[in-house]
Design goal:
single chain, mainly beta, 6-stranded mixed beta sheet, 1 helix
Length: 157
């Protein structure tokens, strides 16, 4: 099975993305250099929407098979191959993505599809990290406004 290394975007690994039908686990993987060339040789569809992802592939696994049975969720491990349960992967995390390929034909078109098997997180950027501001030394602190003499705060009187 092939493995591609790159930066993650819009990763839904621990729980499937249910925004659209069909529901699926998925990851957009930004690729450069040798990894981009490897994806092209495999035959994957390379996308570029002109945003921070640059050249990327979307790799996914549907929650439900055509027969109605449920697929297992893809694996998620750290750099030491230890399971990472309930970890949300933020955009820009360095990851390795293991997937299966298959050929498809539909409505006169054909291509190579991918089935997400496992994601290895090499460098995690936690989802939702608030890095908008730096700490300002000597600036106002909410702790400075606490008044120990008023145990229940402002009562409005």
């Amino acid at each position: 099975m092939p493995v591609l290394s790159g930066k993650s975007h819009w990763a839904s690994i621990t729980s499937p993305n249910k925004t659209f039908e069909p529901h699926k686990w998925m990851i957009d993987l930004s690729l450069e250099g040798e990894e981009l060339e490897k994806a092209k040789k495999i035959g994957l569809s390379i996308k570029n929407k002109g945003d921070e992802r640059g050249d990327f592939v979307s790799i996914s696994r549907k929650v439900y098979r055509k027969d109605g049975g449920e697929n297992s969720s893809p694996g998620l491990v750290d750099s030491q191959k230890r399971p990472m349960e309930n970890t949300l992967i933020g955009n820009g995390s360095d990851v390795n993505v293991l997937f299966k390929t298959y050929e498809w034909e539909y409505a006169g078109k054909a291509g190579v599809g991918s089935d997400l098997q496992k994601v290895q997180v090499v460098n995690l950027i936690p989802y939702g990290d608030d890095d908008d501001f730096d700490v300002v030394s000597g600036g106002h602190s909410a702790v400075d406004t606490l008044d120990d003499d008023i145990p229940f705060g402002n009562t409005g009187s």
